[in-house]
Amino acid sequence: MSTRQALRLAVISAGLSVPSSTRLLADRLTEAVRAELTEAGREVEVRVVEVRDIAVDIAKNFASGFPSPDLSDAIETVTSADGLIAVTPVFTASYSGLFKSFFDVIDNDALTGKPVLTGATGGTARHSLALEYALRPLFAYLRAVVVPTAVYAASGDWGGKGDPLTDTLPTRINRAGRELADLLRTLPGGGTRADDDTDVVPFTEQLATLRPE
Fold it and tell me: Is 51 a domain residue?
């Protein structure tokens, strides 16, 4: 008899301030994914990596070639997870240098096939395309599986004043959360013990779950 393990969800927040709108968006996305999986009867274990807290460790790793225990733990959190939520502030029309540096110390093959939901925050909606021309290519290079909906939150998106353009943030968060949850539910062996006899789901069928009906 097989025993289902909890799905492991890693959350990367590259915000620099406390509190941080980047962390707020990461938390909202996490709750959306958790709600979808809970409704489907799946347990989720969430581990959050605040990249700000290991910034010095990342810099020392570049100089020495050896990760500190805290950095090793953060890398293990990401590479061993069933799925990943990665959120960065946008600086100068792209992801932050700290966000990129963290993924630079992870092996290029470590995220192969891993479902990823990307998000970003910024002061103006003009930076929203950074998700498509910066973050999506980054994770495509790492051969991760990026869900279709990427979520950008500008300063004006928080609060809601009846504007049909800015008041869509909760809708986008829920849609992205559903897409990542759909992939996690259909992972071959995801969240199950190694002796489980679960049939392998072809990758094309996994992607089909994300298509609108």
Answer: yes
Of the candidates 78, 73, 100, the residue with the CA atom closest to the CA atom of residue 88: 100
- When the pLDDT of each residue in the chain is averaged and rounded to a whole number, the result is 86
Specify burial of residue 196 (Cβ count, 10 A radius: 0-12, 13-18, 19+). Answer: middle
Pairwise CA distance, residues 166 & 171, whole Å: 10
Please check whether residue 121 is in contact with residue 87, taking contact to mean a CB–CB distance below 8 angstroms: yes
Tokens of 65: 């070639």
Task: State the Cα angle at 79 between 136 and 20, rounded to 5°.
Answer: 60
Decide if 192 is inside a domain.
yes
Domains held by the chain: number:
1
Q: What is the pLDDT of residue 204?
A: 54
**Residues spanned by the domain of 197:** 7-207
As a whole number of angstroms, the distance between CA 13 and CA 102 comes to: 11
Say if 2 falls within a structural domain. no
Global confidence as pTM = 0.84
Task: Specify the length of the chain in residues.
Answer: 213
| Low-confidence winner among 28-32, 90-94, 149-153, 178-182 (lowest mean pLDDT) | 90-94
Take residue 83 and report the two structure tokens written for it: 């799925």
- Phi then psi for residue 102, to 5 deg, are -60, -45
Contact predicate 136/150, CB 8 Å: yes
Q: What is the pLDDT of residue 156?
A: 81
The token duo for 202 is 């072809």
Q: Which CATH number fits the domain that encloses residue 43?
A: 3.40.50.360
